[in-house]
Amino acid sequence: MANIIKEIANFYIDGFRNMTVGKSLWILILIKLFLIFVVLKFFFFPNFLNDNFDTDEQRAQHVRNELINNK
Q: How confident is the model at residue 71 (pLDDT cuts 50, 70, 90)?
């Protein structure tokens, strides 16, 4: 079983090592993922609970109320 896993890992490692055009495409993919998950998070997903409540108890109470009252 461990031998099969090593063979599969070596297959993918050798494939990525021998890529030419694929390397630049993977760089573009990683840059896009960075933009989507890191940069856009700050603009479109503000931290509502930290901005509007001071303590963890207030945050927890708000979440409880939202879960119970908004069905």
A: low
